[in-house]
Amino acid sequence: MTMDPAIKARWVAALRDPEAKQAKGTLNRVQPPTDPEAINPDRLTVGQCCLGVLAEIAVAEGITTSEVDERPDGERTTKYADPYTDREGEKVSDTASGVLPRIVRDWAGLPDTNPSVNHNGRHTLAALNDGGFSFAEIADLIDAQL
Prior knowledge:
Elements: H1 5-16, E1 28-30, E2 45-48, H2 50-60, E3 66-70, E4 76-81, E5 84-85, E6 91-92, E7 95-96, H3 102-108, E8 116-118, E9 122-124, H4 125-130, H5 135-145
Antiparallel strand pairs: 1-2, 1-4, 3-4, 4-7, 5-6, 8-9
Helix pairs in contact: 1-2, 1-5
């Protein structure tokens, strides 16, 4: 499966944006409106995983929707709608907050909800993001391999 070139170009450009703030462990971390670090007052985003950047592009395109999810520990993240049809043909409503929703994967033409790239072995994009790779480094790998 080959990623849609136009979507890839938008994703890579967004990752290379010097204003983009990176987060680990979730697609999109949000904070209360009083947080001075919030980079988008409407969404209250303070950081994103590389996959969260693509999920937000999909939201802007109307592919999926999102809402703030307050976890029991008080952390606030974004969960994305992930509707799909199960093996019996039933429509299922689900959400995703750690990997891409299937609907975003399919729209972008990706092979997986957490695609792997080769960098000294196969690694998922989320593992690279959470392991300390910068957005720019991840953008280079996406550009070359997906």
